[in-house]
Amino acid sequence: MGSRFFNPRNPSGSVKSGEHVELNGISCSYDLDSEAGSGEYATYTVHIPLTPDNRPSGLDIQLDGRVSQRVEEHYTANSIFTGGHNSVTRAHLMDKVTESEASHPQMAGSKGSTCAIPGCDAKIMTDERGEDILPCECDFKICRDCYVDAVRTGDGICPGCKEPYKGEFAAVDNGRALTLSSTIGVSKEERRLSLLKSSSPRSTLMKSQTAEFDNNRWLFETKGTYGYGNAIWPEEGGNANGENENAGESIKLLSKPWRPLTRKLSIRAAVLSPYRLLVLVRMAFLGLFLTWRVRNPNEDAMWLWGMSVVCEIWFAFSWLLDQLPKLCPINRCADLNVLKEKFETPNPRNPTGKSDLPGIDMFVSTADPEKEPPLVTANTILSILAADYPVEKLSCYVSDDGGALLTFEAMAEAASFANLWVPFCRKHDIEPRNPESYFTLKRDPYKNKVRPDFVRDRRRVKREYDEYKVRINGLPDSIRRRSDAYNAREEMKALKLQRHNKNDDEPLENVKVPKATWMADGTHWPGTWVVPGPEHSKGDHAGIIQVMLKPPSDEPLNGSSIDAKPIDLTEVDIRLPMLVYVSREKRPGYDHNKKAGAMNALVRASAIMSNGPFILNLDCDHYIYYSEALREGMCFMMDRGGDRLCYVQFPQRFEGIDPSDRYANRNTVFFDVNMRALDGLQGPMYVGTGCLFRRTALYGFDPPRSKEHPGCCSCCFARGKKKPASVADAPEEEDESHGLRETDDEMNLALLPKSFGNSSFLIDSIPVAEFQGRPLADHPSVKNGRQPGALTNSREPLGAATVAEAISVISCWYEDKTEWGQRVGWIYGSVTEDVVTGYRMHNRGWRSIYCVTKRDAFRGTAPINLTDRLHQVLRWATGSVEIFFSRNNALLASHRMKFLQKIAYMNVGIYPFTSIFLVVYCFLPALSLFSGQFIVQSLSVAFLTYLLGITITLCLLAVLEIKWSGITLEEWWRNEQFWLIGGTSAHLAAVIQGLLKVMAGIEISFTLTSKSAGDDADEDYADLHLIKWTSLMIPPITIMITNVIGIAVGVVRTIYSELPQWSRLLGGVFFSFWVLVHLYPFAKGLMGRRGRTPTVVFVWAGLIAITISLLWVA
Question: Its GO CC terms (predicted)?
Fold first, then answer.
């Protein structure tokens, strides 16, 4: 084992301008007076030591470039990096990451031969197949560190045969070997991003009239030459090498018939036209009804009439906010064949047909392994690793916000099992590619499988999966036993040391050894310990990055016949995407901003390590159900006009929900009606998971061609094309743009650290990500495109300097005095950070797309018991109240957002307030029955006509919505029922909590929704009957009991009255029945299973019933 340290000798951290600081084997240069380091931001360059033993920097070790890259990448992939604020950044070389042996050559701690040097037990270097790299013809096995020592101290002599190294390992240049790294002496900034001056700077970097540099023009109009990873930015008028030999071929390519990647499928006019007409008719009925109600008060019960009229006016307003954005629903479809033809088919620019698709960084977030089972998270990771997307273009980052060793080792087990599962999926076209879901499918698994060895392969993989589940489920006990053993050993050592240092007559003191959590290689876990200790608790631990699976090779790597695999993989690509474990640093006194902060840490770390121009985030319980979902999302991003898309949102689909969907957990009305309708405006909202982002949109930049929408309904009915406005012509929003200035013909990036922080690597990656995310310029109509074949080059190897920089950007102090969470990345300040983040993008003029695939793209889990469902809705509603009282209120939106899109966002902030009027209105029928009055003087013909018209139009609208959205009548009715259940419970509590936060500053804390099964795990839908008492149940229970008692009182009074008022009784009973029918699922949920209803339910019910009865008698 070895360690690399990144620790300044100056512990205070203060440096003078131009001071050169020597680190522990590292050279750091600080320049506080440079342009990029003006103000409070310092630029720095870190030079990694050439060997782990921190030898003097004056000694020049040099190796062949190709070997050095493999050496560096091998070291990086087998090291866990830790560090943070005022702490050492350390790269700890690990022998193993789990108790079981790693089998895949890309995996950290993968099995390999041991170094033959006496006294060294390190593993030797391996290639992409996991085979040993032997630098000498004598096949002497030597590890990376010993080989470097042999070159440094032994003049390149092999310790085995005593002969000089030959071939690519030979010493050259007067006995000196080639450089250890091809970039030694070159700054990381220059190596990662080379920015050349344009031949016409003033034509590409134009100053605005206010002399401020336009960051969007910098991103979208620069003609410079960029090169990083697999990107080449050709110069104007030529290819990447300045040549113009393929000009004729390009013209020929552009002359081909252009085929779009996506199509817009309009809803049939026979359905949509009547739907819009019915909306107008119902609006007319509502207007006439409310006018009649105001002009015809009930003189006998003005209080009852007044409350009912106010509630009805609000309900009409709320219905309008919900209905108007539904006027323009559309459907879309993607053509995967065209995507393959354009990006993965040989052409003059890409003769080999290598994938020209941009990279995607996948984010998986988890926080608590007790509420989010590690097996669920691990299977989500497996579905990502097996996705049908170019392996070298896919990277997976797992954010463990709890810093738990359990999650870390579960990830390692998933990476190990992926060695078998991913090739099996590719070989037999398995769907879905989550092993738990696949092996529990209730359909014939052998259908449409033509390979003769499928049955044997499936049986063997199933056996391996069962063992894999046992290992993951046994990890908590394994970690506990291991930690207890190591802690006992440490106590014995401390006791022996105490006895050795004390005299025989002195009494021994109690030995206090921290109850540490130990990793599989026998070292302390740097994250959260099972028994929390100083700097090892959930809110206080170092930042951690571990590359579980190093980046794959560029060329396909088929399995070999000599591999000890349970199945034959000789014709299957066995490469795996890069997999990285990330746990950001947490320290007391810092606001870590929950999930939004964790996502922003992943954005920064991924920008430095892989810099995929697109990001797809998933919750730990949402897995890829359709392996080609990423390709369908990429069709929209790469199509004409795709550069103006900020994200592609996929619908959420859920498993494990009871067949009747008692509490509307599937949310089909929202996902299939509201979201599909928003797609016809400016795009759907971001709903927290299953969303493919454009990285530069997350960075807070404006779209390349933004429009203003001053009109009310131009987004629905104005179909004429408008001339797009330039970004420079669009008025800048004070709170939505980054401040950049241009003082010369060159770009001045001095103010970017104020937005993105002082990592020059992060800032340098921004234009690269923007260029890689452009659509192909394969047609003159495609604006802001890139040349075909620009993304076919190999990516840069992953080095220790890169991971060390990633550690610095996930530290707790990095966001201080920057715009992360304010204008950049996921937005802070709300428990529903997803809606706010999407709103900010739409407010800058970006568009979004709703991608509904024929097969569900992603599937996840949802709480099916009543208590968890109410708490989930409470969290959403509280976030909406926070949005209403913040500057993210749609009333303050810019002109770049369409009018009906503003209405939709306005409804998001207003809908919880409907609960106030809804609770009052649900009590009105009982109050009318108690008092013998009604909301109207009498049931006149006018009142019944208006009521009948409103009801019929509502039913007809529901039928047409079902027709164009594809939902069922039962799903629509369940949504109506839970609207009243949530409105009388969780929404009301959300309004109260939101008002307390705004007026009194009382913060609201929420717990994670548990994804684990109930106690009766063997029974289907066991959680459905689980009842946990919560105060949210009090209002609905009170409403139900009050209405039941009201009906009984009204019937008795009318029967025994001298002048019975049957019309008033009929009206009160009808509306009470309407309330009780909507609350029926709630009442059924309270009953649970026979004999399991909580006693507190009966106690509250009895107390409330007695209280109401006594009040009525009085």
Answer: Golgi membrane
Q: Measuring CA to CA, which residue among 722, 842, 702, 840 is closest to residue 784?
A: 702
Nearest-CA neighbor of 343 among 626, 643, 558, 634? 634
Separation between Cα atoms, residue 171 and residue 672, nearest integer Å = 66
Residue 564 reports pLDDT greater than 90: no
In the three-class reduction of DSSP (H, G, I as helix; E, B as strand; rest coil), residue 198 is classed as coil
| Residue that is written with structure tokens 């452009």 in the block | 774
Q: Which residues are annotated as a binding site for Mn(2+)?
A: 595, 619
Q: Outline where 594-720 has alpha helix (H).
A: 594-609, 629-638, 668-669, 675-678, 695-698, 714-717
- Give yes or no: 401 in active site: yes
Residue 683 corresponds to which amino acid?
G
Specify the DSSP class assigned to residue 172: B
Check 834, 856, 868, 1023 and give the catalytic one: 834
Which residues line the annotated binding site?
365, 371-372, 401, 594-595, 619
| Contacts (Cβ under 8 Å, ≥6 apart) of 320 | 283
Confidence class of residue 154 from pLDDT cuts 50, 70 and 90?
A: low
Contacts of 352 (CB under 8 A, 6+ apart): 346, 792
60 in catalytic set: no
Rounded CA gap, 855 and 857, in Å? Answer: 6
Q: Three-state secondary structure along 940-999?
A: CHHHHHHHHHHHHHHHHHHHHHHHHHCCCHHHHHHHHHHHHHHHCCHHHHHHHHHHHHHH
Burial code of 538-553, b = ≥16 C-beta within 10 A, e = fewer?
Answer: bebbbbbbbbbbbbbb
Band of residue 793 on the pLDDT scale cut at 50, 70, 90 = confident
Binding site, annotated residues for UDP-alpha-D-glucose: 365, 371-372, 401, 594
DSSP one-letter string for 18-41: T-EEEBSS-EEEEESSSSTT-TT-
3 state DSSP class of 419: helix
**The one catalytic residue among 401, 554, 643, 702:** 401
Is there a contact between 1051 and 1045 (Cβ–Cβ < 8 Å)? no
Q: Report the relative pairing of strands 614-619 and 623-624 from DSSP bridges.
A: unpaired
Q: State the pairing for strand pair 623-624/858-861.
A: antiparallel
